[in-house]
Automatic annotation (TrEMBL):
Cofactor(s) needed: Mg(2+); Mn(2+)
Residues annotated as binding 1-deoxy-D-xylulose 5-phosphate: K126, S152, E153, S186, H209, S222, N227, K228, E231
Pathway linked to the protein: Isoprenoid biosynthesis; isopentenyl diphosphate biosynthesis via DXP pathway; isopentenyl diphosphate from 1-deoxy-D-xylulose 5-phosphate: step 1/6
SUPFAM superfamilies for this protein: 1-deoxy-D-xylulose-5-phosphate reductoisomerase, C-terminal domain (SSF69055), Glyceraldehyde-3-phosphate dehydrogenase-like, C-terminal domain (SSF55347), NAD(P)-binding Rossmann-fold domains (SSF51735)
Name this polypeptide is given: 1-deoxy-D-xylulose 5-phosphate reductoisomerase
Domain called 1-deoxy-D-xylulose 5-phosphate reductoisomerase C-terminal: residue spans: 147-239
NCBIfam families reported for this sequence: Dxr (TIGR00243), PRK05447.1-1 (NF003938), PRK12464.1 (NF009114)
The species this protein was found in: Acinetobacter gandensis
Gene name of the encoded protein: dxr
Domain DXP reductoisomerase C-terminal: from-to ranges: 271-386
Record key words, sorted: Isomerase, Isoprene biosynthesis, Magnesium, Manganese, Metal-binding, NADP, Oxidoreductase
Keyword NADP: yes
Short name of one Pfam family: DXP_redisom_C
Length: 398
């Protein structure tokens, strides 16, 4: 039977790749709900092509969307708005699969709603899991939701782990013969820049990733290695291991998407051309496999695969994320919130590239850590951290 899909963040890079896959399999999947934030014209184009039943936008965009839908004879599409609309779309009884591809903390409550409603949740929005950690995992478990990683590294790790690994007891130790997870990192566009060179890189340079084409925020995160830090935290939650069992390996070609090492000396890797359509298709169809347009890997074209240790002196964000995971509680939420503010400030040229981790470190030092006992407590910490980080941005800018 055809699966009905809700795409949170349909106008983004992951949203677009998701549509590419769905388009290849019209018999198996239909688009039920789509959401956008600023790109309304693009949203209408998507509505024309995929004919969803529901579209969600911010309240101030509702009129613009309504007019465009009417002009395109699409007035039957129901328009919902704001966070309540995102949640209603994610938990809608007609929806089977939710692609969580909103960027940042804005995706937390809709993603959590999808988990609560027992959906198949394709998780791209790593910030939501970094913030909510155990609560997201528990919510998914208690409601029989299937939380499947779309982040290419986590999808690779999932593919390399034993079957049923996620159903086993969760106590922070690797199990079923797993020794450690090797999380690969491309190293981003500034892998071999000196500290001095890093001080003057521009937003345009930071957003030009050598291997992947992605949204602006994750592109900057890839350049600072905060993306790998967030992914380290994401891996700990998804695969129920403490941070010392996740080793980051810089692999500039992005052909191996991550690895799992076993106690018998085996190391399993998942490889492929760097294209998000592969992990998206995997998460959509798991445990089956479906066709994509991604060309098969030509190993003769990639005769060299290199590996190196990350440099946390030039890229302190990775160290900050590891420390936050170790500290636990609200520290990952504070880290994430400060990073969102710092990245936005870098993109608008209020602060320099090397000041991004400074804002994060400062905020982690200022906002009190405590147990992350509820979503309300997490949202409060997120709010406080943003205020502290914004002040730090102002101080650095003046
Ligand atoms: P984009 O910036 O390309 O897209 C983000 C999407 O979220 C857009 O649809 C955007 O709407 C929407 N959005 C932005 N802000 C809000 C808000 N406040 N409320 C509701 N919706 C909002 O990002 P990506 O697609 O690159 O990334 C999405 C997520 O997936 C991120 O968490 C990222 O870390 C993760 N990810 C991305 C990968 C990639 O290759 N791109 C790889 C692995 C993970 P609009 O465009 O209309 O403004
Ligand atoms: Mg990734």
């Amino acid at each position: 039977m055809s699966q009905s899909v809700c795409i949170l963040g349909v106008t983004g890079s992951i949203g677009q790749s998701t549509l590419k896959i769905l388009q290849l399999h019209p018999e198996e999947y239909s688009v039920f709900a789509v959401t956008a934030h600023s790109r309304i014209v693009e949203l209408v184009e998507i509505c024309k092509q995929f004919r969803p039943k529901i579209a969600v936008v911010p309240l101030q965009k509702v009129d613009e969307l309504r007019q465009l839908l009417i002009a395109n004879q699409l007035s039957e599409i129901e328009i919902l708005h704001d966070e309540a609309g995102l949640i209603a779309a994610a938990e809608h009884p007609n929806v089977d699969v939710v692609m969580a591809a909103i960027v940042g903390a804005a995706g937390l409550l809709p993603t959590l709603a999808a988990a609560k409603a027992g959906k198949r949740v394709l998780l791209a929005n790593k910030e939501a899991l970094v913030m909510s950690g155990d609560i997201m995992i528990q919510t998914a478990r208690e409601n029989n939701a299937l939380l499947l990683p779309v982040d290419s590294e986590h999808n690779a790790i999932f593919q390399c782990l034993p079957q049923n690994y996620l159903q086993e007891n969760r106590n922070g130790q690797p199990k079923m013969g797993v020794k450690q997870i090797l999380l690969t990192a491309s190293g981003g566009p500034f892998l071999h820049h000196s500290l001095e060179q890093l001080q003057s890189v521009t937003p345009a340079q930071a957003c030009k990733h050598p291997n992947w084409s992605m949204g602006q925020k994750i592109s900057v995160d890839s350049a600072t290695l905060m993306n790998k830090g967030l992914e380290l935290i994401e891996a700990c939650h998804l695969f129920a291991v403490e941070e010392q069992f996740v080793t980051v390996v810089v692999h500039p070609q992005s052909i191996i998407h991550s690895m799992v090492q076993y106690v018998d000396g085996s190391t399993l890797a998942q490889m492929g051309n760097p294209d998000m359509c592969t992990p998206i298709a995997h998460a959509l169809a798991w445990p089956e496999r479906i066709q994509t347009h991604v060309p098969p890997l030509d190993l003769f074209l990639h005769s060299q695969l290199n590996f190196e240790e990350p440099d946390t002196v030039r890229f302190p964000a990775l160290k900050l994320a590891r420390q936050a995971m170790k500290a636990g509680g609200l520290a990952p939420t504070i880290l994430n919130a400060a990073n969102e503010i710092a990245v936005a400030a870098f993109l608008t040229e209020q602060i320099g590239f090397t000041q991004i981790p400074q804002v994060v470190e400062h905020t982690l030092g200022q906002v009190e850590n405590a147990a992350a006992v509820s979503i309300d407590v997490i949202l409060q910490a997120d709010h406080t951290a943003r205020i502290v980080a914004e002040k730090a941005v102002l101080n650095l800018g003046s």
